[in-house]
Amino acid sequence: MRTALVTGASSGIGAEIAKRLDSLGFRVILTARRADRLEALASELENPAEIITADLSEREDCFRLYEQTKNMNVSVLVNNAGFGVIGDFEETDLDRELSLIDVNCSAVHILTKLFLRDFVRKDRGYILNVGSSAGLMPGGPLMSAYYASKAYVVSLTRGISEELRAKGSRVSISVLCPGPVETEFNDVANCDFAVKGISAEYCAEYALKGLFSRKTVIVPGLGMRLGAASVRLAPDRLVLRAARKMQSKKLES
Fold it and tell me: Do strands 181-182 and 74-79 pair parallel, antiparallel, or not at all (unpaired)?
């Protein structure tokens, strides 16, 4: 049976991607910090699932996760774990932001590199890094660390994708860049979205269609795709001012 590993699978996009992969016939390895959430999700799946609890803000857990799964014939890796912090940069908690960088950047980097090496050796496999439309922006006032972390994920994925293409590899890597999605993200970041989000179910379905179509950058929702295109044409200073106004509304909500 084909096997997929999904990090941050306890809720939101990760949980919905796991459900969708299960419906496609994959055995899913579910990873997050909350074992009870993973067990509840596993009980909903058609195929037997593997549960591995891990805190991906700890590098040791990232390497342990790879060691536990490297011989499970994983052919799809979904790096979904991540969170945001909102507030003026000089006032937000430094330790919280360093943990954000560990989860959003370091964990993605570690797992991508380790599994990519295995996939390249077998000349097969798919990697989906969950970024954000924030990663397509020039910056994000009041969510500066989060936007920067997602820009890292987008840039890393794009660079690796071109390396694989140049070598004629059958391994594929994609980055998912959704706008607002109706998940627990708001509660973790302590904010509310200024615009209505898409459903996690729709986001997951769109993401996997793009992944298996070998699309490098996946942006669900016509409105968000148009918005991402317009950002490239607008002066950075205007985009940054608009982003700040949007984040301010989140703090006011």
Answer: unpaired
In 3D space, the residue among 136, 148, 141, 151 whose CA is nearest the CA of residue 251 turns out to be: 141
Give dist(CA 74, CA 112) in Å, integer.
12
Strands (E), the chain: 3-7, 27-32, 50-53, 74-79, 126-130, 172-176, 181-182, 198-199, 217-218
CA distance 163 to 106: 20
- Measure Cα distances from 111 to 8, 104, 139, 186, 195 in Å: 13, 12, 25, 26, 32
pLDDT tens column, 198-245:
999 999 999 999 999 999 999 997 666 666 555 665 676 665 666 667
Show the domains of the chain with their CATH numbers.
3-252 (3.40.50.720)
Kindly list the catalytic residues. Answer: 146
Both structure tokens of 15: 């949980």
The tokens for 29 are 């390895």
CA 160, CA 152: separation in Å to the nearest integer? Answer: 12
To 10 degrees, the CA torsion angle through 218, 222, 223, 224? 0
Q: Who's near 163: CB < 8 A, 6+ residues apart?
A: none
CB atoms within 10 A of CB 51: 16
* CB 51 within 8 Å of CB 42: yes
Percentage of residues in the chain having pLDDT higher than 90:
76
Neighbouring CB atoms inside 10 A of 135's CB total 26
Q: State whether residue 217 is helix, strand or coil.
A: strand
